[in-house]
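Every protein is a chain of amino acids, and every chain bends into a shape of its own. Below is the pair of lines this work produces for a single protein:
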Amino acid sequence: MDILAYFKKIYDQVPDWVQTMHNYVPNALEYYTKLRNEIMVDGALSKKDKELILVGINAARRYEKSMIFHTKGAIDSGATMEELVETLTPCILSRGIPAWLEGVKAIDYARKYMKRDENVSTNESIETSNERFDTVEEAVEYFKNEADGVELDWVKKLKNEAEHALLHYGQLRKNILRDGHLSRKMKEFILVGINVSERYEKGVEIHVNSAKKLGATNQELAEVALVGLLTAGIPAWFEITTFIK
């Protein structure tokens, strides 16, 4: 395999990091390329889904260069603008507005790459949810349902100390994690990917459990973690092993 030609085909150029690794540790580049080829293929998850998960992980980690590379990969694999946007909104729940600000760069890149007019809305075919929480108690009940009937300690504390924050965060979470251009299960996979990459075990547990309720298999979750391994290293794989035995 001509490795430099391989990466040039993917990225329309030979990235600096590839060229430098080729110059100094070519065997390592060869092994990395083989690993990448094993991971970034259709399996329990499609290649498109894996590219989108990497877009979300890198937006959450605020790593623009890799995020843009995988935005291109997702589009080349058939992702739509609407799917890309719904990949990025769950990042707000996990890593806040800075992740969205990073994700906007992916949207801007995608519009140029797809030659899409900036004035065209990305919400053409999805109905806006009219369900809203009118009371804090409704938000508390939502989180209890999400946690299999358990009122979580952090929810109790937020209710007691900042009930309006709980109300509005619950509404935001409910609207972002509904089925849309991406399924809720796919959004949970993105959140699993972010949390294995950031080595946040509690976040991994929450979103693995949510994904399993939606029918996710251990094979799918293993592939999410392998995708995380590409951008965050072996520790991302360590984080999933407790939950897929």
In short: The two ends are 36 Å apart (CA to CA). Residues 125 and 201 are 36 Å apart (CA to CA). The chain has a mean pLDDT of 93.
